Amino acid sequence: MSNENTAGVDTDRIKKRLDSRKAKMKLSLAACAHCTLCAESCFLFNARDNDPTYMPSYKFINSIGVLYKKKGVVDRATLEDIRDVVWGRCVLCTRCYCPFGIDIPEMIAFARNICREQGVFPDYEEKGSIHAG
Amino acid sequence: MVKAKRKPLEEIADAISAYGKVLTVGCGGCVSVCLAGGQREVQELNAELELTLKEKGTSKTLGNYTVERQCNMDLLQEMDDMVGGYDCILSMACGAGVQLMAERYPNIPVFPAVNTVFIGVDRDIGMYEEKCRACGECVLAYTGGICPVTRCAKGLFNGPCGGTNNGKCEVSQEIPCAWLDIYERLKGQGRLDDILKLQGVMQWQNQLQRTVVQPKFEKRYYK
Amino acid sequence: MKSGSNLEKILAAGHFAFTGELGPPRGANIEHVKEKAQHLIGHVDAVNVTDNQTAMVRMSSWAAALLVREMGLEPNYQMVCRDRNRLAMQADILGASALGIRNVICLSGDHQQFGDHPNAKGVFDIDSTQLIDTVRRMRDEGTFISGEEIDGLPKMFIGGAANPFADPFEWRIHRLAKKVEAGVDFVQTQCVYNMDKMREWVKQAVDMGLTEKVYILPGITPMKSVGMAKYMKSKVPGIEVPDDVIKRLQGAEKGKVAEEGIKMALEQIEEFKEMKGVSGIHLMAIEWEHRVPEIAERAGMLPRPVID
Ligand code: SF4
Ligand code: SF4
Ligand code: SF4
Ligand code: SF4
What we know:
The complex is a heterotrimer of chains A (133), B (223) and C (308). Chain A has 7 helices and no strands. With 133 residues, chain A is mainly α. Chain A has one domain (8-117). In chain A, helix 5 packs across helix 7 and helix 6 packs across helix 7. Chain A is globular. Chain B contains 10 helices and 9 strands. The chains are: A mainly alpha (133), B alpha/beta (223), C alpha/beta (308). The interface between B and C is medium-sized, with 29 and 36 residues. The complex binds iron/sulfur cluster (4 copies). Residues 152-154, 156, 159-161, 163-164, 169-170, 177-179 of chain B line the site of one iron/sulfur cluster (SF4).
């Protein structure tokens, strides 16, 4: 059903995880109007000269959004890209504000959970390891 | 950031000895960065515990999980469904995280698996240095950006004392003398006047539990 | 008179002062205090009673100070910042004054790590310079640190320490100036072996006008052996022992090293008697109290002046 090289990824487990919060995830992804209002409330977005890839909405769409769209069938490289977004571009300060009530930090934390479960997380023993703060 | 160091294995094993099902919980924040209590350290600790238990001819159910930040209730609550299956929790977060965990799950014993050591900086991977003791009355303005509360062994405000020794503190040849560094830095900046003045006694602010409410939010929290 | 202590009177009258040192015992043994004090009575103007010296628990300095006072020896009550916060310190100043102690020496104290309780919590609430300022304020302004008024002002002649030999040398005189600004009446220095540096430091103090406000008493500790000299040179922070001192001791005849050490101390005392800006000496004959009478005699310090 997919041509992804999913070696080393327990896609069933990801799927099960996604299902556990499916309703909320679906609603959140559908509710995002791309209004970019959340951007202003993210100190990292401000600190990074308004780089759009630091926008809270960008971060959750490019993490949990990807996992949802692919129904959990992703390769390791994709998980690693997600890792770079959810750890490298967000410190989970939980301060972003979405006028539609989307809990963006919860979604980002959810993506981190899934990555952790697959053994994909930042390696602080490595020089130059990702570290948004 | 907060820096911590894992407790000795025996101490941890001793703390959980009376419990059969133990959940080891890491923190994705500061303790991950300083390699004391992140996801990897959770796995390492459980593996070590498994081994000692085996040597002693016993076994336990050892669960593991890592919360993104144990000092944040929103992020902690995702454990709500999980903790019921355990007899105790081993928290690998700093003291703040351990306490919030214990507050969230008041019926489950929570044990610290790390010693929270200080607020400090990363010197290199695996090497951290203390910089601040959160005195609440920062004096760095007149000390050239070098903290005498943290770095001077005697916490002097009118140093350097007579023990400074080849640039080192009298307590150890390994520890640089804070006040010699303060002197050199201020001299370099032409600011020795700052320490020629007699500095009055410190108004310590870290003697009661403190709460910070930023001015913008005072209306929200104080009626 | 600020306190009316014997030491203050001696110094105010322009006599060359002579102070000694006494470490309280590691127990409640009064005999031990008496035995040490015996050698000092009549030979020194006042004796420093140390406060948990080297961060080892000892009989409290105020108690030992009272004991020696009863014996007719004036105590310089030492107080370190390591073991007490500002409440305890101010309280002890009042108590000591009420019981007749008239000299106090304000010190930081050796770090607890050096002692027998290395994991004790060091207090260091205020530092030695601030303690000097505190005692002066209590005595002269009649207020506590808090600004509250004191009922019955403590009478204290305020002492402090100075180390001309620690780094950076050019800062040392300014540190003395800070203590003078804080209100110190006399300072005793770290043991002097490097006379060149000492002369330079005293000269700076004279030039800056500090010696008009503070009495300087250089610290003298006779070397007992070559080993002691080497140990002090390499192991004791803040003490500077020039090589020629060690050479001179090494050159002494067998069995005469201690005598050579005493001779060197006597020479230093002679020079200090003539040195402008120096008002006396502080003899730290560590665990050598019984030699104090002899050293005092040979240094021409006896008899000590008596002033009513
Ligand atoms: S939680 Fe992440 S996205 Fe939200 S404001 Fe903080 S850093 Fe930005
Ligand atoms: S719980 Fe402690 S270690 Fe974890 S993020 Fe918070 S402060 Fe840092
Ligand atoms: S003076 Fe206080 S707040 Fe400032 S760095 Fe030192 S301990 Fe921290
Ligand atoms: S040697 Fe320096 S750091 Fe050590 S106690 Fe003295 S002034 Fe402080």
